[in-house]
Give the backbone structure.
Amino acid sequence: MSSRADADPRIELARQTVGAVSIVADPSLPSHLLQLVDTRGTTYFAKQHASQARYVQETHAYLTWRVHLLDRAPELVGRQDSTHILLITAVPGWSGDALLPGSDDEEKAHHDAGGALRALHHATNRRSTADMGGALADRLRSWVARADGTDLLSGAERKLVLQIADELAGACMDSAVCHLDYQPRNWRVGEGFWTVDFEHMRRDARIRDFARLEFRHWQQAPRLREAFFTGYGSQPSDTEQRLLERFGAIEAVTALVRGHEQNDAVLSAHGRTVLSQLS
Protein backbone atom coordinates (compact mmCIF):
# COMPACT_ATOMS: atom_id res chain seq x y z
CA MET A 1 0.00 0.00 0.00
CA SER A 2 1.31 3.45 -0.90
CA SER A 3 2.56 5.99 1.60
CA ARG A 4 -0.32 8.24 0.53
CA ALA A 5 -2.80 5.55 1.56
CA ASP A 6 -0.86 4.97 4.77
CA ALA A 7 -1.34 8.64 5.61
CA ASP A 8 -5.12 8.46 5.21
CA PRO A 9 -6.58 8.74 8.74
CA ARG A 10 -9.53 6.55 7.70
CA ILE A 11 -7.16 3.64 7.04
CA GLU A 12 -5.29 4.28 10.26
CA LEU A 13 -8.53 4.18 12.28
CA ALA A 14 -9.53 0.93 10.56
CA ARG A 15 -6.15 -0.65 11.35
CA GLN A 16 -6.41 0.38 14.97
CA THR A 17 -9.93 -1.03 15.18
CA VAL A 18 -10.01 -4.23 13.10
CA GLY A 19 -6.39 -4.87 12.09
CA ALA A 20 -4.86 -4.98 8.62
CA VAL A 21 -7.12 -3.74 5.83
CA SER A 22 -7.01 -3.27 2.08
CA ILE A 23 -8.81 -0.69 -0.04
CA VAL A 24 -11.68 -1.93 -2.20
CA ALA A 25 -11.56 0.26 -5.29
CA ASP A 26 -14.94 1.77 -6.12
CA PRO A 27 -14.87 4.89 -8.32
CA SER A 28 -18.60 5.41 -7.77
CA LEU A 29 -18.07 6.31 -4.12
CA PRO A 30 -17.91 9.97 -3.09
CA SER A 31 -14.50 11.13 -1.89
CA HIS A 32 -15.43 11.14 1.80
CA LEU A 33 -16.20 7.40 1.73
CA LEU A 34 -13.61 4.63 1.57
CA GLN A 35 -14.46 0.93 1.25
CA LEU A 36 -12.09 -1.41 3.09
CA VAL A 37 -11.79 -5.15 3.70
CA ASP A 38 -9.99 -6.89 6.56
CA THR A 39 -8.06 -10.17 6.49
CA ARG A 40 -11.19 -12.14 7.40
CA GLY A 41 -13.05 -10.77 4.39
CA THR A 42 -15.30 -8.44 6.35
CA THR A 43 -16.04 -5.21 4.49
CA TYR A 44 -16.34 -1.75 6.02
CA PHE A 45 -16.91 1.85 5.04
CA ALA A 46 -14.79 4.59 6.57
CA LYS A 47 -16.71 7.86 6.40
CA GLN A 48 -15.09 11.22 7.08
CA HIS A 49 -17.40 14.14 7.77
CA ALA A 50 -16.41 17.66 6.78
CA SER A 51 -18.79 19.01 9.43
CA GLN A 52 -18.34 18.28 13.11
CA ALA A 53 -22.08 18.76 13.64
CA ARG A 54 -22.95 16.05 11.10
CA TYR A 55 -20.33 13.74 12.61
CA VAL A 56 -21.77 14.22 16.10
CA GLN A 57 -25.32 13.75 14.81
CA GLU A 58 -24.56 10.53 12.96
CA THR A 59 -22.50 9.13 15.83
CA HIS A 60 -25.38 9.79 18.22
CA ALA A 61 -27.80 8.12 15.81
CA TYR A 62 -25.71 4.94 15.69
CA LEU A 63 -25.15 4.81 19.44
CA THR A 64 -28.69 5.71 20.51
CA TRP A 65 -31.26 4.94 17.82
CA ARG A 66 -29.84 2.28 15.52
CA VAL A 67 -31.12 -0.42 17.88
CA HIS A 68 -34.71 0.52 17.00
CA LEU A 69 -34.14 -0.42 13.36
CA LEU A 70 -33.90 -4.07 14.40
CA ASP A 71 -30.66 -4.95 12.58
CA ARG A 72 -31.79 -3.20 9.39
CA ALA A 73 -28.78 -0.88 9.57
CA PRO A 74 -24.97 -1.15 9.56
CA GLU A 75 -23.03 -1.25 12.81
CA LEU A 76 -20.66 1.43 14.05
CA VAL A 77 -17.41 -0.34 14.95
CA GLY A 78 -15.06 2.61 15.39
CA ARG A 79 -14.89 6.38 15.45
CA GLN A 80 -12.36 9.17 15.83
CA ASP A 81 -13.60 12.50 17.12
CA SER A 82 -10.54 14.52 16.12
CA THR A 83 -10.90 13.67 12.41
CA HIS A 84 -14.71 13.17 12.30
CA ILE A 85 -14.35 9.60 10.98
CA LEU A 86 -16.79 6.73 11.43
CA LEU A 87 -15.95 3.09 10.68
CA ILE A 88 -19.11 1.23 9.73
CA THR A 89 -19.80 -2.33 8.67
CA ALA A 90 -20.88 -2.76 5.07
CA VAL A 91 -24.28 -4.33 4.48
CA PRO A 92 -24.95 -6.64 1.53
CA GLY A 93 -26.98 -5.93 -1.56
CA TRP A 94 -27.18 -2.89 -3.77
CA SER A 95 -28.70 0.59 -3.72
CA GLY A 96 -32.45 0.91 -3.92
CA ASP A 97 -31.83 3.40 -6.73
CA ALA A 98 -30.54 0.53 -8.88
CA LEU A 99 -33.86 -1.35 -8.94
CA LEU A 100 -35.73 -1.55 -12.22
CA PRO A 101 -38.62 0.95 -12.22
CA GLY A 102 -41.95 -0.84 -12.19
CA SER A 103 -40.45 -4.13 -11.01
CA ASP A 104 -41.68 -6.36 -8.20
CA ASP A 105 -38.31 -5.83 -6.52
CA GLU A 106 -38.89 -2.07 -6.42
CA GLU A 107 -42.31 -2.57 -4.88
CA LYS A 108 -40.91 -4.99 -2.29
CA ALA A 109 -38.17 -2.50 -1.35
CA HIS A 110 -40.78 0.16 -0.58
CA HIS A 111 -42.81 -2.35 1.44
CA ASP A 112 -39.74 -3.35 3.47
CA ALA A 113 -38.74 0.30 3.87
CA GLY A 114 -42.13 0.98 5.43
CA GLY A 115 -41.63 -1.82 7.95
CA ALA A 116 -38.17 -0.61 8.93
CA LEU A 117 -39.29 2.99 9.41
CA ARG A 118 -42.31 1.92 11.42
CA ALA A 119 -40.01 0.16 13.89
CA LEU A 120 -37.99 3.36 14.42
CA HIS A 121 -41.04 5.59 14.68
CA HIS A 122 -42.99 3.24 16.93
CA ALA A 123 -40.11 2.97 19.40
CA THR A 124 -39.59 6.74 19.63
CA ASN A 125 -43.04 8.24 19.05
CA ARG A 126 -44.32 11.10 21.19
CA ARG A 127 -47.91 12.21 21.00
CA SER A 128 -49.03 15.43 19.39
CA THR A 129 -47.72 18.79 20.60
CA ALA A 130 -47.60 22.30 19.16
CA ASP A 131 -43.86 22.76 19.79
CA MET A 132 -42.81 20.78 16.71
CA GLY A 133 -45.01 22.84 14.40
CA GLY A 134 -43.49 26.07 15.65
CA ALA A 135 -39.96 24.79 15.14
CA LEU A 136 -40.71 23.66 11.59
CA ALA A 137 -42.37 26.96 10.76
CA ASP A 138 -39.21 28.75 11.90
CA ARG A 139 -37.12 26.39 9.79
CA LEU A 140 -39.22 27.14 6.70
CA ARG A 141 -39.00 30.89 7.32
CA SER A 142 -35.21 30.63 7.60
CA TRP A 143 -35.05 28.91 4.19
CA VAL A 144 -37.25 31.65 2.74
CA ALA A 145 -34.82 34.23 4.11
CA ARG A 146 -31.97 32.44 2.32
CA ALA A 147 -34.00 32.35 -0.90
CA ASP A 148 -34.65 36.09 -0.57
CA GLY A 149 -30.94 36.80 -0.91
CA THR A 150 -30.93 35.51 -4.50
CA ASP A 151 -34.53 36.26 -5.55
CA LEU A 152 -35.42 32.59 -5.98
CA LEU A 153 -39.09 33.15 -5.12
CA SER A 154 -41.61 35.42 -6.81
CA GLY A 155 -43.75 37.64 -4.63
CA ALA A 156 -46.72 35.28 -4.96
CA GLU A 157 -44.59 32.22 -4.20
CA ARG A 158 -43.06 33.87 -1.17
CA LYS A 159 -46.48 34.83 0.16
CA LEU A 160 -47.79 31.28 -0.30
CA VAL A 161 -44.81 29.67 1.42
CA LEU A 162 -45.01 32.05 4.37
CA GLN A 163 -48.75 31.31 4.67
CA ILE A 164 -47.83 27.63 4.89
CA ALA A 165 -45.27 28.47 7.60
CA ASP A 166 -48.05 30.15 9.58
CA GLU A 167 -50.23 27.06 9.09
CA LEU A 168 -47.46 24.80 10.36
CA ALA A 169 -46.86 27.04 13.36
CA GLY A 170 -50.42 26.45 14.54
CA ALA A 171 -50.47 22.70 13.90
CA CYS A 172 -50.13 19.91 16.43
CA MET A 173 -48.20 16.88 15.23
CA ASP A 174 -46.65 13.68 16.55
CA SER A 175 -42.89 13.58 16.78
CA ALA A 176 -40.50 10.66 16.42
CA VAL A 177 -36.86 10.05 15.69
CA CYS A 178 -36.71 10.49 11.92
CA HIS A 179 -34.17 9.53 9.26
CA LEU A 180 -34.99 12.68 7.23
CA ASP A 181 -33.37 11.49 3.99
CA TYR A 182 -35.38 8.31 3.66
CA GLN A 183 -35.39 7.35 -0.01
CA PRO A 184 -34.03 4.55 -2.23
CA ARG A 185 -30.49 5.94 -2.53
CA ASN A 186 -30.14 5.34 1.22
CA TRP A 187 -31.49 1.78 1.12
CA ARG A 188 -29.58 -1.43 0.49
CA VAL A 189 -31.64 -4.28 -0.88
CA GLY A 190 -31.10 -7.86 -1.96
CA GLU A 191 -31.38 -10.74 0.50
CA GLY A 192 -32.95 -8.37 2.99
CA PHE A 193 -33.38 -4.65 3.58
CA TRP A 194 -31.09 -2.14 5.29
CA THR A 195 -31.05 1.63 5.56
CA VAL A 196 -27.91 3.76 5.75
CA ASP A 197 -26.71 7.36 6.15
CA PHE A 198 -27.88 8.72 9.50
CA GLU A 199 -26.24 12.13 9.45
CA HIS A 200 -29.61 13.92 9.33
CA MET A 201 -31.33 11.72 11.92
CA ARG A 202 -33.02 13.61 14.75
CA ARG A 203 -36.38 14.04 16.44
CA ASP A 204 -38.80 15.72 14.05
CA ALA A 205 -42.42 15.55 12.92
CA ARG A 206 -43.10 11.86 12.24
CA ILE A 207 -45.03 12.57 9.04
CA ARG A 208 -42.15 14.61 7.66
CA ASP A 209 -40.09 11.42 7.31
CA PHE A 210 -42.27 10.51 4.32
CA ALA A 211 -41.61 13.77 2.47
CA ARG A 212 -38.64 12.72 0.30
CA LEU A 213 -40.59 9.69 -0.91
CA GLU A 214 -43.80 11.65 -1.39
CA PHE A 215 -42.26 14.37 -3.53
CA ARG A 216 -39.38 12.55 -5.23
CA HIS A 217 -40.64 9.02 -5.83
CA TRP A 218 -44.38 8.50 -5.34
CA GLN A 219 -45.95 11.19 -7.51
CA GLN A 220 -45.59 9.09 -10.66
CA ALA A 221 -45.75 5.68 -8.93
CA PRO A 222 -48.66 5.53 -6.44
CA ARG A 223 -48.32 1.76 -6.14
CA LEU A 224 -44.99 2.30 -4.39
CA ARG A 225 -46.73 4.56 -1.91
CA GLU A 226 -49.33 1.85 -1.30
CA ALA A 227 -46.63 -0.78 -0.81
CA PHE A 228 -44.73 1.45 1.64
CA PHE A 229 -47.72 2.16 3.86
CA THR A 230 -48.75 -1.49 3.79
CA GLY A 231 -45.32 -2.25 5.23
CA TYR A 232 -45.60 0.70 7.62
CA GLY A 233 -48.87 -0.68 8.95
CA SER A 234 -51.12 2.35 8.45
CA GLN A 235 -51.96 5.05 5.94
CA PRO A 236 -51.74 8.74 6.89
CA SER A 237 -55.05 10.16 8.07
CA ASP A 238 -56.61 13.01 6.08
CA THR A 239 -55.12 15.48 8.56
CA GLU A 240 -51.69 13.86 8.30
CA GLN A 241 -51.85 13.84 4.49
CA ARG A 242 -52.61 17.56 4.51
CA LEU A 243 -49.64 18.05 6.81
CA LEU A 244 -47.39 16.01 4.52
CA GLU A 245 -48.45 18.21 1.59
CA ARG A 246 -47.56 21.30 3.67
CA PHE A 247 -44.09 19.87 4.19
CA GLY A 248 -43.71 20.17 0.42
CA ALA A 249 -42.97 23.85 1.05
CA ILE A 250 -39.86 22.92 3.04
CA GLU A 251 -38.87 20.42 0.35
CA ALA A 252 -39.33 22.98 -2.41
CA VAL A 253 -37.52 25.95 -0.87
CA THR A 254 -34.69 23.78 0.44
CA ALA A 255 -34.17 22.31 -3.04
CA LEU A 256 -34.23 25.74 -4.66
CA VAL A 257 -31.65 27.18 -2.27
CA ARG A 258 -29.36 24.16 -2.32
CA GLY A 259 -29.72 23.83 -6.08
CA HIS A 260 -28.68 27.45 -6.50
CA GLU A 261 -25.78 27.20 -4.05
CA GLN A 262 -24.47 23.96 -5.57
CA ASN A 263 -25.24 24.89 -9.19
CA ASP A 264 -27.39 21.73 -9.36
CA ALA A 265 -29.94 22.16 -12.14
CA VAL A 266 -31.72 18.88 -11.34
CA LEU A 267 -32.25 19.84 -7.71
CA SER A 268 -33.42 23.32 -8.69
CA ALA A 269 -35.90 21.83 -11.18
CA HIS A 270 -37.21 19.52 -8.46
CA GLY A 271 -37.77 22.51 -6.20
CA ARG A 272 -39.69 24.31 -8.96
CA THR A 273 -41.85 21.23 -9.58
CA VAL A 274 -42.80 20.83 -5.92
CA LEU A 275 -43.39 24.57 -5.55
CA SER A 276 -45.84 24.48 -8.45
CA GLN A 277 -47.83 21.75 -6.66
CA LEU A 278 -48.39 23.79 -3.50
CA SER A 279 -51.80 25.36 -2.98
